[in-house]
Amino acid sequence: MFFLNALLAVLTGVWGLCLASGLADGSAPTPKPALPAALSDQPGDIERGRRIVLDRERGDCVVCHAMPLPGRQFHGSLGLPLDGIGSRSGAAELRRRLVNPKAFDPHTIMPAYHSTQGLHRVLGSYRGRPILSAQEIEDVVAYLLSLRADGPAELPVSRPHRVDPERTETGSPTVVDGRRSGYVYLSEENRRLQDDAFGNPGLLWVERGSALWAQPHGLSHTSCASCHADPAVSMRGTRTRYPRFDTRRKGLINLEQQINRCREERLGAAAYAYESDDLLALSALVGFQSRGLPLQVDIEGPAQAFFEAGRAFFERRRGQLDMACAQCHDGYAGQRLRGDILSQGQINGFPIYRHAWQSLGSSHRMFAWCNTAIRAEPFAYGADEYVNLELYLAWRGRGLGVETPAVRR
């Protein structure tokens, strides 16, 4: 199952019990939904409930909450600690929060565990069914009620995330007017790896791209170098301007699509498959020439409608977990998601070498991965929806220096 690795990266899969959700804007409380005393005839089972809250496919509460579980090293910090929750809340309250927390706060990040109403683009295998069955809700309630203030507790001590002030001061390429590159949230080891001109694994693709750049292709028997000569000169600054509006497409075109257009029209060669090593190698080579230069995409004029579509994508909830990109990367950036620190989701480092993938990947691979992690139907690589999102995110990270190929967890 894809959830076995779903929490190895920044920004995704927040489906723990966000019991801390309350009224975010101070408005009058929404009337509590009427629920029966229990959702099933069979009483909740504490041990079954404990297994459910630890199961990454079902509850996985530790992704958001510290819990009294000896031996658990990484706990999230998005929600309140759950030690003693059974002394603070009754069964009816916990049940209501689990079934439909949006009845209390429509802006909560917590998914509805026993409702399928109003969901958008749910992944096929999860469509039409709730996250937890009625009996599973009762089992989780029973387990949470057993976590009493007078019971044993062994909560882990949160380790502060270290941020190097020399690297992250405002005005540096990694922090611009509050916009923070993913580099800021990396461990010291991964920062050093990204900065290492010999050890950065993404540079293997840059090297491959250099060979492809000089190699004749297609019916023309010419190469990229035939038109563009030295990429260090001709491609300097190119990465900072994509995606851009293209008059021929009457829509956006991103860097990968532009490379394939050149292959087909100038070289007489077949387009590379999206996410193939060859296309990633050439986009990494081109991006590498803009290292340190600030992102500066154009969102005015004909590009504006596509920019707004990208913004709407970023802000819309989707999937069985009913989450939006903005909830993690705007609302909770800097918080701990189990062993990870949620970043702002900036894209100035793409294509990136990601340890979870053990390979290089484009921003569209990351978009699809995030969609799948929240159990939403992903779009195809190169889809207009993802290019629109790419433009919005490039603007959202405006001024941040290009880091291609960046290293991420």
Total number of distinct structural domains: 2
Biggest β-sheet strands, sense, barrel: 3 strands, mixed
The CATH architecture of the largest domain can be given as: Orthogonal Bundle
Number of strands: 9
Total number of helices: 15
* C-alpha end-to-end distance: 20 Å
Oligomer: single chain
**Taking strands numbered 1, 2, ... along the chain, how are they ordered across the largest sheet?**
8-7-9
Question: Low-confidence spans: pLDDT under 50, at least 5 residues?
Answer: 1-29, 153-171
What is the share of helical residues? 25-40%
Describe what you observe in this structure.
The chain is mainly α and 409 residues long. The chain folds into two domains: 1-159, Cytochrome Bc1 Complex, Chain D, domain 2 (Orthogonal Bundle); 164-409, Orthogonal Bundle (Cytochrome Bc1 Complex, Chain D, domain 2). The chain has 15 helices and nine strands. The chain has helices at residues 46-54, 85-88, 91-99, 134-146, 165-168, 188-195, 203-214, 224-228, 231-234, 255-267, 277-288, 304-315, 325-331, 363-373, 384-396, and strands spanning 175-176, 179-180, 244-246, 251-253, 336-337, 340-341, 352-354, 359-361, 406-408. Strands 8-7-9 form a three-stranded mixed sheet. Strands 1-2 form a two-stranded antiparallel ribbon. The longest helix is centred in the middle third of the chain and has 13 residues, at 134-146. The protein is elongated and about 75 Å long. The model is unreliable at 1-29 and 153-171 (pLDDT under 50).
